[in-house]
């Protein structure tokens, strides 16, 4: 029967199990524009990231993607599976940049749950630790790190959805059905 279907709302504390692996569904190809904008926004003045001549004269033979951009993409890729219902990151540890990243590379990330525990100070939440690794299009690992975060328990008051309620629900009455 047609009607409102709830979309993916993310995992809550109760949904995490040690050893679970999440292969995050969205790959991301990094462009030269992404890298240039990121260096500008973060005031990164290392010319290896935005000066073709400097990049070409380096041991890599081309410009490098700024590593904080790679880290930001990896964390972002993991949100849909891990921290959609988190309210605070508590730590980012054991960060390793294991291979260079270049404009044109496509990054994919996956995470494994390393541990979880109830919060002593916040009964509506728990603490989860994951390890994430990021692979490029050739399946070469370019990055890995451990991340610990607070995540809401299912039904926690602050975890309530915030989608605005329209005065009039969306229905087929407003649109002709087309096949």
UniProtKB/TrEMBL annotation:
An example molecular function term from Gene Ontology annotations = lyase activity
The transmembrane residues are none
Question: What are the start and end residues of every segment in region (Disordered)?
Answer: 160-179
Q: Does the keyword Metal-binding apply?
A: no
Q: Which keywords belong to this entry?
A: Plasmid
Q: Which Pfam families match?
A: MC_hydratase (PF19315)
Task: State the InterPro entries in the record.
Answer: HotDog_dom_sf (IPR029069), MC_hydratase (IPR048274), MCH/BMMD (IPR052342)
Lineage, top-rank taxon, reads: Bacteria
Return the Gene3D superfamilies for the record. Answer: Hotdog Thioesterase
Q: Provide the protein name.
A: MaoC domain protein dehydratase
Organism of derivation: Pseudonocardia dioxanivorans (strain ATCC 55486 / DSM 44775 / JCM 13855 / CB1190)
From which lineage does this chain's organism come? Bacteria, Bacillati, Actinomycetota, Actinomycetes, Pseudonocardiales
């Amino acid at each position: 029967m047609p009607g409102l279907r709830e979309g993916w709302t993310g995992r809550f504390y109760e949904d995490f199990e040690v050893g679970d692996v999440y292969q995050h569904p969205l790959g991301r190809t990094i462009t030269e524009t992404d890298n240039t904008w990121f260096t500008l926004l973060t005031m990164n003045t290392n010319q290896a990231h935005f000066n073709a001549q400097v990049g070409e004269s380096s041991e890599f033979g081309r410009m490098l993607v700024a590593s904080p951009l790679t880290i930001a993409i990896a964390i972002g890729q993991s949100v849909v599976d891990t921290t959609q219902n988190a309210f605070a990151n508590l730590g980012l540890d054991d960060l390793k940049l294991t291979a260079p990243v270049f404009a044109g590379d496509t990054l994919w990330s996956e995470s494994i749950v390393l541990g979880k525990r109830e919060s002593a100070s916040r009964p509506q939440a728990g603490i989860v630790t994951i390890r994430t690794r990021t692979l490029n299009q050739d399946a070469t690992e370019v990055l890995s790190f451990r991340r610990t975060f607070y995540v809401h328990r299912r039904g926690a008051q602050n975890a309530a959805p915030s989608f605005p309620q329209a005065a009039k629900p969306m229905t087929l009455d407003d649109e002709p059905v087309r096949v």
